[in-house]
Amino acid sequence: MKEILSKIDHGELFKAADLFAIPHFKTVYDLYREYQAAGNYPYISAVADYIEKKLVLDLDETEKKNLESFVFYAARQTEEDHKTEYVKIMLSAGWLVLTTDLVKQAYDQRRKIKLAYETCSILGVVGNTEKIFRPFVTLDDEAYLMKPKAKKRGYPVTGFQNAFCKIV
Fold first, then answer.
1. Could you give the C-alpha distances from 107 to 140, 144, 145, in angstroms and in order?
2. How many other β-carbons are positioned within 10 Å of the β-carbon of residue 82?
3. Positive or negative: CA dihedral 59, 61, 62, 64
4. pLDDT attached to residue 124
5. Pairing state between β 126-137 and 143-146
6. Long-range own/partner contacts, residues 43-52 (CB < 8 A, 24 or more apart)
7. Residue 107 in 3-state DSSP?
8. 25-37 and 61-92 helices cross at what angle (nearest 10)?
9. In whole numbers, what is the pLDDT of the chain averaged over residues?
10. pLDDT reading at 96 higher than 80
11. Which residue would you say has higher pLDDT here, 33 or 9?
């Protein structure tokens, strides 16, 4: 692994179409997941130190920075895996991905939409929320979601990320 860390750098990892095709990336990815599963918060430098000790590596400063780049991309891949898993869970539970067309369909049927979406506070705390909204389509054919008793203001459908809905 030491020879890969002395050759490869952040730019090569950034350009890689398939990170798992890079030698030893799977090892770093698995050790990152192991560190995270142990209940530790995965700071990049802490995970790099853990991997260095676990694999008994003696790295110089450049190799350590390259290992930290590997850890960074392992963290990104882990996050993508969690998102993909969440989408599969929601779709298998009968939820649909929120689209403008679904909001227009609910508006035409005069039905409400139950929405499950991610929220993020000012402090960066992420949570999942489920709420009922009333669909609204403007004369310009723009779709909005309004609180059930709202008269004037709504939320544009395009403003919701990672949102799933059910027409109720």
1. 14, 10, 10
2. 10
3. positive
4. 67
5. antiparallel
6. 44/68, 44/71, 44/72, 44/75, 47/71, 47/74, 47/75
7. helix
8. 70
9. 90
10. yes
11. 33
> Would you tell me the crossing angle of helices 44-54 and 25-37 to the nearest 10 degrees?
110
| pLDDT tens sequence across 138-151 | 989 899 999 998 88
pTM of the model: 0.75
Q: Is pLDDT above 70 for 58?
A: yes
The domain locations on the chain are: 2-92, 96-167
d(CA 1, CA 72): 17
Q: Identify whether the C-beta of residue 117 lies closer than 8 Å to the C-beta of residue 100.
A: no
- Return the exposure string of 7-36: e unless at least 16 CB atoms fall within 10 Å of the residue's CB, then b: ebeeeebeeeeebeebebbeebbebbeebe
